[in-house]
Write a structure and sequence with these properties.
With 142 residues, the chain is mainly alpha-helical. Helices cover 47% and strands 11% of the residues. The mean pLDDT is 87.
């Protein structure tokens, strides 16, 4: 289907769209955490990269990365139209993710990323991986 807008019109239209987050993947994983009794996490933390979940006591941040938007090496398939734009966009997202991880790590946070396909195909495994990381980042007892 051909785009009936000029590049300027399309840019303006797209700039008006605000992200609501990765809702379906996020909701699925949050439900899984609740059912499994995993506690201690918060959402909407004001940290670089706006992590999806933060375990403050363990200084652990969790990003639930969408396979398309974050360039999953297993799942990402570039769109067939506007290839140059999407290649640059996804490469920019990947570079930003790397910078964000480095910034948070330098500030003393453990960064854990879970791919969207992991949550969809094997949610129990994704949950167990998170539990393993939580166990390794538990604060020392006083």
């Amino acid at each position: 289907m051909a785009d009936d807008m000029t590049p300027t019109q399309r840019s303006y239209t797209m700039s008006r769209i605000r992200s609501a987050g990765n809702q379906s993947t996020e909701k699925r994983f949050l439900r899984l955490l609740r059912l499994a009794g995993v506690t201690g996490w918060r959402r909407s933390a004001r940290l670089p990269g706006r992590p999806d979940l933060v375990f403050r006591n363990q200084r652990l941040v969790v990003f639930l990365d969408g396979c398309f938007w974050h360039g999953c090496p297993r799942c990402y398939a570039p769109p067939k139209s506007n290839v140059r734009y999407w290649t640059q966009k996804i490469a920019g997202n990947v570079a930003r993710d790397k910078r964000t991880s480095q910034t948070l790590t330098a500030a003393g946070w453990t960064v854990f990323r879970i791919w969207e396909h992991s949550i969809k195909t094997n949610p129990t495994r994704a949950l167990n991986r998170l539990r393993s990381v939580l166990a390794q980042t538990r604060p020392a007892a006083d």
